[in-house]
Amino acid sequence: MKLNERSVAHYATCNSPPDKTGFLFKKGERNTAYHRRWFILKGNMLFYFEERESREPIGVIVLEGCTVELCESESEEFAFAVKFDCIKARVYKMAAESQAGMESWVKALSRASFDYMRLVVKELERQLEEVQEARSLQAKSKAKKQQTQVQGAEAGPRTATPSQQNTAITGPSQEGLSSRENGVTWSKHTSSANGVSEGCDYPSRASGVRPPPVPPRRKTNGGSLESPVSPGTGCFSKLHEWYGKEVAELRIEWLQSK
Fold first, then answer.
1. What is the DSSP string of 32-59?
2. Taking CA 27 as the corner, what is the angle to CA 75 and CA 76, rounded to the nearest 5 degrees?
């Protein structure tokens, strides 16, 4: 890949905000010693300067088709390497000043490539489609529910059938309910304004039904009521005395039988 040096230098030093900046120790290609350099990460391009105040970068690493791996060598503390898929591609080795700094740089460099951004965009698009589908289903369900409510309101109350209407017209009223017994209707009326008290009304003669006869009173010769068991006992005291005598005689007979 060929890059325009002026355009790259301008992009490295322009006022566009960087993704990450800081000092790292970079291992030279010919001189294998580690040198302290100032690094600026912008997009998928990692610029490194000799000093922090330098106006132009001394190199750039395009972070496409690469992997960032930790160095397993014990002598290289907090070191990591940027490796490319090409066989003859250079391996860039760098080291941070601390464990936290190394982890932060490894994470930033691993996410800097366009391939990684493409995967992130695809995942975000998938999540967006799921959210939109869920909202669409929710809106359809809400619209269907509202339509059902509107149809129920337009239908109004159910119309009674002819049999129900006849029952409602000819059925007995709950208020002033009258009872019918043996073909005679007995009703209870309330007192009216003319002072007539409550009572049971017999059917009128115009209806064709005659009222039941009043039972006659039983009278004795003396004009007083007598006991059907023992004639001559007209009052309660005589009746009580008569039954008391009978009980006493039965008790005497029972005692004598023992």
1. -SEEEEEEEEETTEEEEESSTT-SS-SE
2. 15
H/E stretch holding 100 reads helix 99-110
Neighbouring-strand partners of residue 45:
42, 62
| Mean pLDDT for back-to-back runs of 10 residues, the chain (258 residues) | 77 90 92 92 94 91 91 86 87 93 94 87 92 91 86 68 54 47 48 46 52 55 50 62 81 82
Which is nearest to 60 in space by CA: 127, 13, 122, 114?
13
pLDDT, position 173: 47
* Long-range contacts of the stretch 110-113 (C-beta < 8 A, 24+): 110/67, 110/68, 112/19, 112/41, 112/43, 112/44, 112/46, 112/63, 113/44, 113/63, 113/64, 113/65, 113/66
Could you count the other beta carbons within 10 Å of the beta carbon of residue 227?
15
The size of the chain, in residues, is 258
Q: Is 212 helix (H, G, I), strand (E, B) or coil?
A: coil
Write down the pTM of the prediction: 0.50
Helix (H, G, I), strand (E, B) or coil at 234: coil
Locate tokens 């990591």: which residue?
80
